[in-house]
Amino acid sequence: MKLNRRKFLKLSGAGLLGVGTLTKTAQALAQEEMLKGPYDKDEWIPSCCNMCGGQTGILCQVVGGRLFRIKPNPHNPIGFSNISDDFFANAAKEGAVMCPKGNAGIMALYDADRLKQPLRRTNSKKGIGVDPRWKAISWEEAYTEIVDRLKKLRDGGEAHKLLWFSEDHSFTHPQGDFCKLFGTPNYSMHSNLCDTGRKASFKILMGDERPLIDALNSKYMLIFGWNPLSATKFSHLPRIITRGRERGAKLVIVDPHFSYTASRADEWVPIRPATDGALALALAHVILRDNLQDQPFIDEWTVGFDQFKEYVKDKTPQWAEVITTVPAERIERLAKEFATTKPALVDVWSGTHHTNGVYAGWAIGALAAITGNIEKPGTLVLPNAKGGKHIEVEPDAVAAKTLKEPRLDGGKDKWPYFHKSGVYMEIINRLVDGKGPYQPKMAMIVFQNLLMSVAGTKNAEKALKNLEFVVVVDTMLSETAEFADIVVPGTTYLERYDLNTHWVTWPAVGLRQPVVKPLFGQPAEYEFVSELGRRLGLKEANGNDVFWVGRTSGERIEDKKRWYEEWLSRELKEGEPKITLEELKALPGATWVSPNGTKYHKHLDPVPGDKLKDALIEGNLAFSKKKDGTKDKPMGMLKADGTAIHGFFTPSGKLELYAAKHVGKKDAAGHDLAPLPVYEPREWQPSQEYPLFLINWKEASQTHSRTQNNAFLAELKATDGLRINAKTAVKFGIQDKDWVWVESPYGKIKMRAELTEGIHPEVVGTQHGWGHWAMGKIAKGRGAHTGFLAKTIACPLSGQSLNKEICVRVSRA
Amino acid sequence: MSAELEEKTAVYFLFSRLFREAPDGALLRSVTEQKLLTLAFCFSGDAVPGNTTILEDPDWPARVDDIAVEYTSLFVAPGEKAVSPYESYYCDRLTIDTSTANSCYFRSESLPEGMKGFLGGESAVQVQTIYEAEGFRKVTAFHELPDHAACELEFMGRMLQAGKEDAAEAFFKEHLGRWIFVFLNHLTKQTVSNFYQKVALSLERFIQREETQQ
Ligand code: SF4
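^ inputs. structure came back:
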């Protein structure tokens, strides 16, 4: 056979090789200069971390367009302290901190398993373990197909059949606005997997969803179900808590698991899961029995004290011992210590992911109220978090029509403490059983890995299979992405913008900005959303082209990055900082910090007269008005002289130990709402068949289920096993490092037993987030995922997902 | 330019194209009908020796969709089958400074020698600088890193095309030649359809010969 080499020439001559990867420059080089922007030289760019939702200030060293190093940004308080005096006086000399996850951010940016091009599935069959047979497609194809699907829904009057899921702290405004202008009421986000239970507890008690701890100035810290020294959502937490202890505070940790924080505490109080409320009530019983309460504060600032006192009368330490397994004498002692050491703080986070969690959190908060430990240095303090202003959009008539449809999860009508983040569990259950008001057709899932985060993985699988079309936007090919029809590569936090209102006790706003260009030229998520809006021609009621028009210039802007810069600029200008984006960038550490600092006793602050003038008055309470003149948010309490003070933003203006508004109302499960922080056993209790509680927790080595492919974090801690009390293990014939089956009525997983004294004998537990079967080479196959064992249930008051309400049996594998 | 150089250029362009994106039907037909992989495999004389095994499979043009799915699983989508087509992945190390980590939980020691297996490392920056120095930039529509196999192969072709054999040789030594064999080795080891196996085989032989000639 004769083959001639010269055929290569014919081939290239025929143009079959198409456009290459490189092009000659000339004017291209000039253009390139522009593209390179300021990133060509060695420089430090201030930004905010997003390896978790903590938003720690960071400084990024960029050399030759490449991120080289990340270090903490001392100009941003979140990495230092939540109290302004401490921050202003000490941050510069001591320097801020970030956690190991923040350090490992570079490895997320340059992860070899990142998604880089849109993918379309070619296998219509979906399921865990089913190969989607991805085919890489162009951005144009991805946009066209997604927009076609969206357009069909909207044109057919079915815009509400689009479900949108997102993170709760990244570019939520453009996504929420898109949903509104498109016409779906079904925009949901992560918070209901996190702390909407806690939010509800404190909303009932004090009308604020997120009080913060002033640990630095405290003398006694009583913490339930929280591991703040390791699960460092706010990276200042370890510093302020350990400083507080160094200054003489006692730290008491109530937790079924001997967490890292417990190991650094003065006392660990192991407790049976989901009985924290009973312990809190017994503590209150002792305090009131022995008259250790702050009666003047109670008289002035609480309602329902008598009913509360009456309720806890029989909640004796002996009563609680039976329920919680905490010895009665210990409860007596803790109550006395807590009530007589001032200032003291009490708090709870995700330890209340149980059916009775909201009442438990309320009972815990009540301890602060009866001891007067609220809004004072060293106690529980209202955050005063103020940042950029979300400029609301007005939907057009087409969108307005479908926005009237109920949310799939039932929304406010169903959940008494419904949070705007929605109720994932309810959405999943309705997708599975089809018993919602309608059956959704399409989902847009942005940085949410429902398969790994929703309680009841098999249910999540069924739910996703019941959708006609799923789009997933993510940096990784997550378990959930494997159910997508189209996967869109997202950007990491080092490649995009955001504004962060920081969770400290005075207003501070940090900027996240692109420190490098998106690695694969992909659009940042806000650019992706605005491209969809543009192609769909979504407009406001008045015809305003929101996705085209710059919010400060009022001009049509082709470049979507610039368009978003104007968006942020306007939010800043009309929000608390009152500066432009450029001005924020120019501030030290690109962080705006209010000079006014931490304020205590904010409930005593006067309401400015001009605000009060426009208020709606009901009894002795003043409310702001909505556009239509109806009642909006509480504003303050009237005094006899006609002036007003802030008070607390509850229906009574005071701390509520008794919530009159609960009377006659039902929760989502149809039970009467209790007007008191009652203790009720949680629903799923251990049985003969499934005798052990299974809990899970977070640690500093990983964020949720999303960072397990990070090489550095895997190096810190490779995986996690099943922690089991050594005595319990003997009972089940299990030895350390044995492989065991962990089974519930919903599934079965295999784990490595880790025997310890550091867990309650009725409990087994593990760090959440392991057990990936996709996501990347590092994440895959490490540990096990407890979601397979869970039931898809939500807290009937708040809609909080209940990933910790599981009972199991354990046997040698 | 000598005919041989011109042909070599075309071979580099062909392989660049094969790694750049999945081949379409027309390209698959050309490759199959004109036995281009076989030609590259025995790129030594005017003709392919009579006893050479033909690498091409006449099925390929009909399997264009399967090949696109396979291209994606090898070079685009992360997963079991993925073979990373970047120099940085094989040659660079990423270190992170943990001196400022708030690690009351971990003693997070920096790993002094760093870790391998990342994208966008120093190699990517270096090759980009070389491209620019030679008057090239990455086309905007190619949303990839500059040290992607398609870019580096094309750059080799571009240098030969411009008669800059020394530049090509230097680039081969400092960049392409440092990793392409490992990459092709991984590719061959994966259980891939015979299309990418043959692509790997052919390119490996072609480059081996180039290397020995240099
Ligand atoms: S706590 Fe850690 S991961 Fe979270 S934002 Fe701060 S540094 Fe980043």
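Chain A touches chain B through 87 residues (CB under 8 Å). Chain A has four domains: 119-194+393-503+506-593, 212-381, 606-645, 692-812.
thumbs up if we can close this ticket
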